[in-house]
């Protein structure tokens, strides 16, 4: 997801990281709404690790020089001031709260050289003046100030072990140090930092806080510690370690260091005067933590006998990162993931330090720079730790915010560019430092925007059973993964370059009111096809299923070829071939030329057979040398019903009482007549292709059907017979003639003379007139027997079928209504998408015309449909030419529901293949957002978002685009889990 997707919800924290961690935590279940509305979720960086430009615009070594002259004080550097003002203004402009840290371990080298930096109390005044500049210049826009980042760790790393700048230490405590005293300097540094912090807080509260209304506090590094054993010695040692590490907070709350520190350190620990104690005590509005891991502690009394001791030895304890690890003094070198430790720490602060306001200012997970985009380990880590914060809050801890470390990959202080903590990948080999979102960025965005709840840890996973795990490699190498569009919904340019109206143009522009959105531009594929095919290639599509506009190629529906239309489709096909993408072309996708409708009634007249064959001949002749997969027509079973029974599609023919808002038509006979002509036209085109073109071009040709798996609602014989009847009327209507040469027996019986018949010649031509069958599959449904309509004299196809189709809980929809809704005649803003494959049989139907709310993820219907085609029709080669999930147009980039849906349905496809079904390909509907036929621009099926309010029709990848690319192109593994005891499926990536 692009960085803009984190706007409004993410706060920026400018600071630094020390230690890393790994592994798994405990469990909880939560959403963003479980946190208070004013709880802040953010991410962070620090200046030295993020900014670069270390010698530009007056910057001297370290951050202070951005503001001041070379000596670290005095006049402000105008360019440094301008940079931070610009940064702050841009953050405010985006609606993001600022949490700014004044010091992140990088004071000016000039002050270190002049008087030893934090070892000298002269730094108190210099830091105070620096802070004054920040408050004065930025405080009108910065609401949260942190004076210091993790001074407890910084003092040890810089002045005890020598691992951090300025690299001071003494033997035998540190490494590679030329100067320093590890026994005293860490304590002196912390003491001066506390006094400096108190002076800065006093300055802010006296001079700025009243007018600016901000908060100010200090950050400390925290580890939770467990006793290695249940011995009293280890328990006491654990408390000592906590007092030493978190002891920096005791002066802030109580005015002095912990008693154990004063006892063990003695005269090496500086003391506060009465005035200093009063100044330091209470000098915070909040405490912030950098927390990553936990550690185990064991008692080490031998250190008490040492004359020469540093901070670690003063604790009289040893630590280890894991139970089976060798103990050592100082922070653990190996980190475990222990979200319970963070909960414990937050509750410890609540109980010991009077429940201060707390921000988690750093928490994150480091990985190497390889395979850094697919950071599922980081996602698990973050969600477990966020869950632990919620648990602590429910137990009374006063936590106000959480920041991931880090927003983007940074220069890590000890590892350089060799480790990666960011939500966004940064290519450090690229001078432009390109940013690319990792999966964790998408996940964090989804959580913050409350897209879905988060279930974490072992308990949440225990209720799910992994039923399938797969990758692209589990499919045959010649299996084709693609995505699709259709001409009318994608191209736009309705009146450009010789194109004439289709029946959809006429219906929208002539018959409907002005409130209906118009497809003049649609997705502007007529002008942006090159850009889109480039995106297809980047995504990793192996095939692209699209349709040709009959009225763009043949302006009059027959006769002369429109050369500009011909050039457009040649360009599209050439561009696809250039990028190694297979063109899968549909000749007819519901958009018959209006001129043929006006002339003789379109599909109601057998005259259309020759016109369709003539149009197909042009396509085969002009494009067949590069197109090896032809589909004659899309969804003729829907087309016949929706166009000629209920009038939901153009030409909107129907008759009372079966349709609505129709001026003419006959719902009892026209659907059958139209379908009959479609089958004959299809057969004629297949014969043409096989006779004239296939021997040379070596392509395949087939037809596409809309498929819904229909199960009996009960185990009754009536419902079972009704479901079989419904399958014969929906699938068998076309498959039986194509395989056996005639309509199903039940159709001939129930429809009688209203159903046309095939001559012997026609039967032979239709039978086997396919090399493959394409199906568009979205959902399953339950069927209830309703034989009463069969007793009436006036019947349409819905009445001929007999059953009612129970599409969902709270809805039963007649077949005539079903096919209208299939093409999105639903209010997506209210998530009223057809509920496909209802999970519950128990809730009673209420109204046959109420559209269900959503599509439940029940992919077993597809598995059953593919088996049904295999068993009933001789296992024909199958391409799944459409399968997808519709959402509203708001928050469409974070389409985790779509990912889960696609993952499960692709998994069902693989299961069907393993069970013997001859499935050859799978195509997502749709590659990008389109003009949906009945919903216009109000619904979104695409892998790529199209901004329809922008005339440029900008494309932006959704999370599903990244996921599909990861699966098809990069071989990521998909796990399908089933909730135990329920028909609910989940995808794990």
UniProtKB/TrEMBL annotation:
The UniProt record lists the keyword Lyase: no
Keyword annotations from UniProtKB, A to Z: Glycoprotein, Hydrolase, Signal
GO molecular function: beta-glucosidase activity
Domain of life, per lineage: Eukaryota
SUPFAM superfamilies: (Trans)glycosidases
Segment forming the signal sequence: 1-27
Coiled-coil positions: none
Family the UniProt entry places it in: Belongs to the glycosyl hydrolase 1 family.
PANTHER family: BETA-GLUCOSIDASE 11, GLYCOSYL HYDROLASE
Entry protein name: Beta-glucosidase
């Amino acid at each position: 997801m692009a960085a803009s997707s984190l706007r409004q919800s993410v706060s920026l924290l400018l600071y630094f990281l020390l230690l890393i961690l790994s592994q798994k935590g405990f469990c909880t279940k939560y959403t963003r709404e479980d946190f208070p509305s004013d709880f802040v979720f953010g991410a962070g960086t620090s200046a030295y690790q993020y900014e670069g430009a270390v010698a530009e615009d007056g910057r001297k070594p370290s951050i202070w020089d951005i503001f001041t002259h070379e000596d670290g004080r005095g006049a402000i550097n105008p360019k440094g001031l301008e940079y931070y003002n610009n940064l702050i203004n841009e953050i405010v402009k985006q609606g993001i709260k600022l949490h700014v840290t004044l010091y992140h371990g990088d004071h000016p080298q000039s002050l270190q050289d002049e008087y030893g930096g934090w070892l000298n109390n002269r730094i108190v005044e210099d830091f105070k003046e620096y802070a004054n500049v920040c408050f004065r210049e930025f405080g009108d826009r910065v609401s949260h100030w942190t004076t210091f980042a993790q001074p407890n760790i910084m003092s040890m790393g810089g002045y005890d072990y020598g691992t951090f700048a300025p690299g001071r230490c003494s033997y035998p405590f540190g490494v590679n140090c030329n100067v320093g005293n590890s026994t005293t300097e860490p304590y002196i540094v912390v003491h001066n930092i506390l006094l400096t912090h108190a002076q800065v807080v006093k300055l802010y509260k006296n001079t700025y806080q009243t007018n600016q209304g901000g908060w100010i506090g200090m950050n400390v590094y925290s580890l939770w510690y467990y006793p290695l054993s249940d011995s009293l010695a280890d328990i006491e040692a654990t408390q000592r370690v906590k007092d030493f590490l978190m002891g920096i907070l005791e002066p802030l709350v109580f005015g002095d260091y912990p008693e154990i520190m004063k006892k063990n350190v003695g005269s090496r620990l500086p003391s506060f005067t009465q005035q200093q104690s009063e100044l330091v005590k209470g000098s915070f509005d909040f405490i912030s933590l950098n927390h990553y891991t936990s550690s185990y502690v064991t008692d080490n009394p031998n250190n008490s006998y040492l004359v020469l001791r540093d901070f670690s030895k003063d604790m009289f304890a040893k630590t280890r990162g894991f139970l089976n690890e060798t103990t050592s003094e100082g922070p653990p070198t190996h980190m475990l993931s222990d979200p319970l430790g963070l909960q414990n720490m937050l509750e410890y602060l609540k109980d010991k330090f009077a429940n201060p306001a707390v921000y988690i200012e750093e928490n994150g997970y480091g990985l190497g720079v390889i395979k850094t985009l697919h950071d599922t380990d980081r996602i698990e880590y973050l969600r477990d730790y966020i869950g632990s914060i919620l648990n602590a809050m429910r137990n009374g801890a006063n936590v106000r915010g959480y920041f991931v470390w880090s927003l983007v990959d940074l220069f890590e202080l000890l590892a350089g560019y060799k480790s990666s903590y960011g939500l966004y990948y940064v290519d450090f080999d690229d001078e432009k430092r390109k940013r690319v979102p990792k999966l964790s960025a998408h996940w964090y965005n989804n959580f913050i925007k409350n897209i879905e709840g988060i279930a974490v840890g072992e308990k949440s996973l225990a209720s799910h059973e992994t039923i399938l795990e797969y990758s692209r490699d589990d499919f045959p190498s010649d299996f084709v993964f693609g995505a699709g569009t259709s001409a009318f919904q994608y191209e736009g340019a309705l009146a450009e370059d010789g194109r004439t109206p289709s029946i959809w143009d006429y219906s929208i522009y002539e018959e409907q009111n002005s409130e209906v959105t118009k497809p003049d531009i649609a997705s502007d594929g007529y002008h942006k096809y090159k850009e889109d095919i480039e995106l297809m290639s980047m995504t990793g599509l192996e095939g692209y299923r699209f349709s040709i506009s009959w009225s763009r190629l043949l302006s009059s529906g027959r006769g002369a070829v429109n050369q500009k239309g011909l050039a457009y489709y040649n360009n599209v096909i050439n561009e696809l071939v250039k990028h190694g993408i297979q063109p899968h072309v549909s000749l007819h996708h519901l958009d018959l030329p209006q001129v043929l409708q006006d002339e003789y009634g379109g599909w109601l007249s057998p005259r259309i057979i020759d016109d369709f064959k003539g149009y197909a001949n042009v396509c085969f002749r002009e494009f067949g040398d590069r197109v090896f997969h032809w589909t004659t027509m899309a969804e003729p079973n829907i087309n016949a019903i929706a166009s000629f029974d209920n009038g939901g599609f153009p030409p909107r023919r129907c008759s009372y009482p079966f349709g609505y808002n129709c001026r003419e038509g006959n719902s009892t006979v026209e659907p059958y007549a139209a379908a009959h002509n479609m089958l004959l036209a299809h057969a004629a085109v297949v014969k043409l292709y096989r006779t004239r073109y296939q021997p040379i071009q070596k392509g395949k040709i087939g037809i596409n059907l809309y498929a819904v798996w229909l199960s009996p609602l009960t185990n009754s014989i009536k419902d079972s017979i009704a479901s079989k009847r419904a399958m014969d009327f929906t699938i068998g209507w076309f498959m039986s003639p194509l395989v056996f040469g005639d309509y199903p027996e039940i159709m001939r019986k129930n429809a009688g003379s209203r159903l046309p018949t095939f001559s012997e010649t026609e039967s032979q031509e239709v039978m086997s007139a396919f090399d493959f069958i394409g199906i568009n599959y979205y959902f399953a449904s339950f069927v209830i027997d309703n034989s009463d309509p069969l007793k009436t004299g006036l019947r349409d196809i819905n009445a001929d079928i007999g059953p009612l189709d129970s599409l969902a809980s709270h809805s039963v929809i007649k077949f005539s209504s079903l096919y209208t809704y299939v093409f999105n005649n639903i209010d997506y803003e209210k998530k009223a998408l057809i509920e496909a494959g209802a999970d519950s049989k128990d809730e009673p139907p209420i109204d046959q015309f109420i559209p269900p709310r959503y599509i439940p993820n029940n992919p077993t219907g597809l598995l059953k449909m593919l088996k049904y085609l295999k068993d009933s029709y001789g296992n024909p080669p199958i391409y799944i030419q459409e399968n997808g999930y519709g959402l509203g147009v708001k928050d469409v980039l974070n389409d985790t529901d779509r990912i889960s849906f696609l993952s499960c349905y692709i998994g069902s496809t693989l299961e069907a293949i393993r069970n013997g079904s001859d499935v050859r390909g799978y195509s997502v509907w749709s590659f990008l957002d389109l003009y949906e036929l009945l919903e216009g621009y109000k619904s979104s099926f695409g892998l790529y978002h199209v901004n329809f309010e922008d005339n440029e029709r900008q494309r932006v990848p959704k999370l599903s685009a990244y996921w599909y690319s990861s699966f098809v192109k990069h071989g990521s593994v998909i796990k399908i889990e089933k909730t135990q005891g329920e028909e609910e499926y989940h995808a794990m990536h």
